[in-house]
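Hey, can you fold this one?
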Amino acid sequence: MARRIIPDVVRNQRLVALAPTNHVREAARFMQHRNVGAVLVMEGDKLVGIFTERDMVGRVVADGLDPDITPLSQVMTANPVTVAPNELAPVALRLMDDKGFRHLPVVDNGHVVGIVSRRDFSGIEKAQEEAAQLPDERRITAIR
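Sure. Predicted structure:
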């Protein structure tokens, strides 16, 4: 049986979330302290973006921006693709592969309930094999 995002892949997470007005340096410190590669960008309870290590390299460092004054709103990935908590793990993994993502927020009825990353998947090859066996219409349900 295929694994579901929650509870099979993601369990007992303490989400790392900041406001769009927080600066990049604050996000970097949170990411380092919590040993995560992404931080959710939230306005209250609403997910408005995600800021990842890739964003830091490609949009901050490469562009010569000052992390002490650059707000996350300027460099985050806005309106990120999300996945439902009951989605099949191979579907999420396939979506990540197809879109080139390393992180996917997990959203249930408009509320963020987790975040899944590539490293959360143990036995990636097995999950990819499972995804290859899914019918095409099942593979695309994760895209909102």
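The beta strands are 17-18, 38-43, 46-52, 77-78, 103-108, 111-117. Let me know if you want another pass with a different chain boundary.
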